[in-house]
Amino acid sequence: MSVPRFASLVSRSRAAAAPALRNAARSFSTTNAVRSAGSIPSLHTFTEEEVMLREAVAKFATEVVGPKVREMDENEMMDRSVIDGLFQQGLMGIETPAELNGSGTSFTAAILTVEELAKVDPSVSVMCDVQNTLVNTVFTKYANAEQKEKYLPKLATDTIGCFCLSEAGSGSDAFALQTKADKQGDYYILSGTKMWITNSYEAGIFLVFANVDPSKGYKGITCFIVEKDMGVEIAKKEKKLGIRASSTCALSFDDIKVPASNVLGQIGQGYKYAIEILNEGRIGIAAQMLGLAQGAFDLAVPYTFDRKQFGQAIGDFQGMQHQYAQIAVEIEAARLLTYNAARLKEQGKSFVKEAAMAKLYASQVAERAASKAVEWMGGVAFTRDLLVEKFYRDCKIGAIYEGTSNIQLQTIAKILKTQYAK
Amino acid sequence: MAHRILVPVKRVIDYAVKIRVAGGKIDTNVKHSMNPFDEIAIEEAVRLKEAKKAAEVVTVTVGSTKSQETLRTALAMGADRALHVEIPESAEVQPLEVAKILKAIVAKESPSIVLLGKQAIDDDAGQTGQMLAGLLDWPQATFASKVELNDSVLTVTREVDGGLETVKTTLPAILTADLRLNQPRYATLPNIMKAKKKPIEKLSPADLGVDVTPRIKVLEVSEPPKRSAGKTVGSVDELIDKLKNEAGVI
Fold first, then answer.
1. Does A389 qualify as catalytic in the annotation?
2. Cβ contact, residue pair B189, A48, below 8 Å
3. Residues B90-129: tens digit of each pLDDT
4. Which residues of A touch B32 (CB under 8 A)?
5. Are B184 and B43 in contact, with CB atoms under 8 Å apart?
């Protein structure tokens, strides 16, 4: 009979509860609880300058970038006026302090910038994202004072940077990189090749990860600040499926001389810097994918209320309603994951799992949203007369760069294991 | 000459928003931004400052707490400091009351020029600048599409029905900005951050001795009739018949 069994369950749980109550003081010591629910705002809460920045970037994106999007995609080239505009608006040194000619704003401000740009052009968005969340952050976190003073102002005002880690033989297995750096007096001689490097065609500053001592395995990987005129060669500019205006090149370093003073951080710690930075950069890519999804959605849904078939707007058919409602839910979920990861990082809390979740999910949502957007707009969306087909091509990279979706899943799983395995 | 330019700005429903009327009232739970003509006015004032023709640009708004964001935008575009004449969110001010407040602000700030947008895009009144000129007994050059300031003399090109008219006026004077005066700049991120440190002074209409009770009452707000499809007619007689008997316009 269920009743006696239930009674025994209750008495057993009461016995179990007693020691817990005695330990209540200890069990509440590690929470980050606040005093009352009234003071906890939703994730859609921003500071005044974050709101102003979002509006300014949205306006800039629509008016300056917007008219050039198709042309840049067809030509597979970023327009100089767009690059200059990003610098002039202060969007290439968002977190860099004002003393170093930056804008001195928050990480979330950078995330919002990347999101707003991606709503109009994911290519422009990734250029801004790599500059801010990868290149600038490496300098801010690990460079010495002279290096910061020398390079951060350039990166904030007129020089594009790029992050050179991947090679033909090492993508997800980044530590298997082969580029070598041999110490010779006051210089290191760098030799090797890098592949899939975003921004590299326009860049003047290259953060190159090379191994100073392959016998130490990944513990020889060191980060070098390399300037273009030290001899960096563009071996090949890739022709891509999507984000075509963003330059992606193979680079070669043919025994180039890099001053020893350009070692960034500590020798042999480059692998650590790369992993840590990519954990943060992930949130940037999540923001890019989020903006892409929203941009595609914002293009397609109004169309469904204009387009009439069988005597009514196609957006009013229940089949359509269910589809765009579902996508709206997923975009909102991706948005909350992204903003939450950004705020956790800003507050110095642990965010690696949340960042991986945000990037994983946002890139998946972007693909679904862009795909549906093309279907909702029908035949005309399949032509290059509209930009919605571009969102569909652009979204695919989200599951690949800055950590493939499989890598994100592994990162999340490893953290879950530490939480769940005894 | 150390000219001070006063630029009043207004927070209005964003120009891109589709206005909806619900229950006889306009749905105001939508995106708001600075009146576009006021953006043009701020831009012109900041340009005069950058050309060293003016020393200071002061911006002012009459509005609820939410209007503070409009002042921050003006500061981010280059205004030096701001005044916020705060009114309750439920209250509304009309052009004459705003002009009276501005007259009191002028007495406080002694600007050489008051540069306003020619009209607000919500009421389209186009009256405040002119009323202020009347209250102050100052010369006015409205619908300006070009402004030149040399040795305390303003030369202004105005867009009027017949074309362009150029007027000269001494200072102090009222100017209202028309669409083609300039292209307002984007607020860059460094300027947005600098704007945080610029002061916003708070005042109330009572502080300025102005009664802002509206004198004009809005009786009804309704959407314009929906556009319907046209009809093709076969002959002039049919056209006249339809215009007379169906459309009732002749």
1. no
2. no
3. 888 999 999 999 999 999 999 999 999 999 999 999 999 9
4. none
5. yes
Q: Which of B15, B33, B189 best tests the A interface by mutation, with the highest count of A CBs <10 A?
A: B189
A52 vs B contacts (CB less than 8 Å) = 69, 72-73, 76, 187, 192, 195
CA distance B250 to B241: 9
DSSP A132: I
Q: Which residue has the tokens 């409009």?
A: B70
Tell me if chain A has a CB within 8 Å of the CB of B190. yes
Chain A residues in contact with B192 by the CB 8 A cut-off are 49, 52-53, 56, 103
Strand pairing of B4-8 and B113-117?
A: parallel
Q: Which of B14, B15, B18, B192 to mutate to test the interface with A (most CBs of A within 10 A)?
A: B192
ipTM for the predicted complex: 0.76
> Which of these, A90, A70, A89, lies nearest to A79 by C-alpha position?
A70
**A51 contacts B190? CB cut-off 8 A:** no
Interacting residues of A123 by C-beta distance below 8 A, sequence separation 6+: A72, A73, A78, A243, A244, A245, A246, A394
* Closest residue, chain B, to A63 (C-alpha): B186
Q: What percent of chain B has pLDDT over 90?
A: 76
Q: Which helix (H) or strand (E) holds B82?
A: strand B81-86
A88/B188 touch (CB, cutoff 8 Å), yes or no: yes
Q: Which residue has the tokens 């399949």?
A: A382
pLDDT digits (tens, 9 = 90+) for A27-54: 555 566 777 777 788 999 999 889 889 9
pLDDT single digits (tens) A152-197: 999 999 999 999 999 999 999 999 999 999 999 999 999 999 999 9
Structure tokens at B73: 């935008």
pLDDT of res. A1: 47
pTM to 2 decimals? 0.86
**How large is the greatest C-alpha to C-alpha distance in chain A, in angstroms?**
85
Is it the case that residue A16 has pLDDT exceeding 80? no
Q: Which two tokens stand for residue B200?
A: 């916003």
To the nearest whole angstrom, how far is the Cα of B65 from the nearest Cα of chain A?
13
